[in-house]
Amino acid sequence: MTARVSDLETIKRISAVPAMLQVVTEMTGLRFAAVARVTETSWTACAVLDRLGFGLEAGGELDLVTTLCHEIHASRQLIVIDNVDEDETYCHHHTPRIYGFKSYISVPVLRTDGRFFGTICALDPSPAKLSEPKILAMMASFARLLAIQLEAEEDFQKTEAALLDARETAELREQFIAVLGHDLRNPLFAITAGAGMLLRRPLGEQDAGRAVSVIEHMLACGRRALRLVDDVLDFARGRLGNGIPLAVRECPDLEAVLRHILSELQGAHPDRVIEGDIGPLNGVRCDADRVAQLLSNLVANAVTHGTAESPVVVTARVEDGAFVLSVTNQGPPIPPDIIPRLFQPYWRPAEEAPKAGLGLGLYIVGEIARSHGGRMSVSSGAGGTSFTFTLPSSTPG
User: Fold this and answer.
1) Which member of 91, 121, 240, 384 has the greatest number of CB atoms within 10 A?
2) Which H, E and C letters describe the chain, residue by residue?
C-alpha cells in the first residue's frame, strides 16, 4: 500500500472528520471544504464536503503548484482570504483564477513531532468574512484535533496489525507442531519398532532376508524423517532469516543432476509416467542441489495432484540466456484466486482431503527461487497445470 493510499484510508477511519467539515462550512458559509494530504510533490483530497459541484472527491488529486497549500507547506502558516479582489497578496495570484474562488481559508495540520501532514481548507466563489477570531480559533483547534486523531488512528492500526500478525503466528505455530508431530511419529515408530525386533530376536541365516527387509524399511523411514527435519530447517531459514542459503557456482553437471532426480522419482513412483525433456544447460549459475530439491518438490506436487493416467512432463532449457524449468501435469484447473496462495506454508484448499507431509513443498520451492533471484509462475487451464521456475542470466554470485 502506498503512503498516499494509506493516508486516505486512515482519514476515512476517523469518524470525526465529516463532522469537522460540516462545522467548517456552517461557521464560515463556504460551500466547499476538504482535508488534504500535502507533500512536497502532491496534493490529495482525503475527505471532501462539496456543496458547490466543485467535482473533487476523496482520492482526487490537484496539481500541487496550482494550489495555495503549496505555499502553506513551505511556510506552515494559515492563509485567510475574505475577498480575493480586495486582497493585496492574492488579487493577482494564479490560484484564485484557476479555481474561481473569492474567499478561502486553509490551516496547516502538523503532527505532534512537527511533521507536516496537510491542510484543512475551504473556499467559495463568493466573498465571506473569514478573518474573525472565532473562525481562526476554530480552524486552529480542528487542525490540532485532526493531528491527534490521525496519530491515534495510526497507532491503533499498528497495534491491530501486530495483534493480527501475532494471532497468525500462533495459529501457524500450533498447526506446525501438530503436523510435524503427526508426520514424524510414523517413521520414527517404524524405526524404533524395527530396531527393537532385531534386538529381541537372535538372527540365524534363515532370518537374514527378513532382517534385510526390516533394515531397508528402517532406512527408508529414517530418510523420510530426515526430509521432514530438512523441510523444517528450510522453513525456518526462509521465514526467519534472509532466505534459504545457496552455494551458487557454474553448474556444468546440472543436466546430469536433473536427469538423476527424475530417475529417482520414477523409481519412487513406478505406477506413474514421468517424462523428462532436459536440453543442454550450458552456462547456468545456480546451486545445483537446491535446484534439484526444487524439481523434486514440483514433481512430487504434480504426482499428488495430477491425474494418474496422464504423464508428468518436465522440461528444462536455456532460453535467451535464462534457465527455465517447468513441470506440467494434467488435472482439474487451479482456480485463479487460489494461485497466489500456493506458495504459502502449510496452505491447502479447505476442501482438500488431508495428505501426508508438512505442506511446505511449494513454500520451499518459492524460497529457493527467491534466493536465486529467480521467480516462480503458475499457469492452469484445460491444457494442464504448469509450475515454471525462471532464473535470469544474472544470478547471485
Assistant:
1) 121
2) CCHHHHHHHHHHCCCHHHHHHHHHHHHHCCCEEEEEEECCCCEEEEEEEECCCCCCCCCCEECHHHCCHHHHHHHCCCEEECCHHHCCCCCCCHHHHHHCCCEEEEEEEECCCCCEEEEEEEEECCCCCCCCHHHHHHHHHHHHHHHHHHHHHHHHHHHHHHHHHHHHHHHHHHHHHHHHHHHHHHHHHHHHHHHHHHHHCCCCHHHHHHHHHHHHHHHHHHHHHHHHHHHHHHHHHHHHCCCCCCCCEECCCHHHHHHHHHHHHHHHCCCCCEEEEECCCCCCEECHHHHHHHHHHHHHHHHHHCCCCCCEEEEEEEECCEEEEEEEECCCCCCCCCHHHCCCCCCCCCCCCCCCCCCCHHHHHHHHHHHHCCEEEEEEECCEEEEEEEECCCCCC
- Tell me the average pLDDT of the chain: 83
Comparison of pLDDT for 221 and 82, the residue scoring more:
82
Predicted confidence (pLDDT) per residue in 256-274, tens digit: 999 988 988 888 788 999 9
Domains and CATH numbers, the chain: 3-158 (3.30.450.40), 162-240 (1.10.287.130), 249-391 (3.30.565.10)
pLDDT in tens, 183-218: 565 566 666 666 666 666 665 555 666 666 666 666
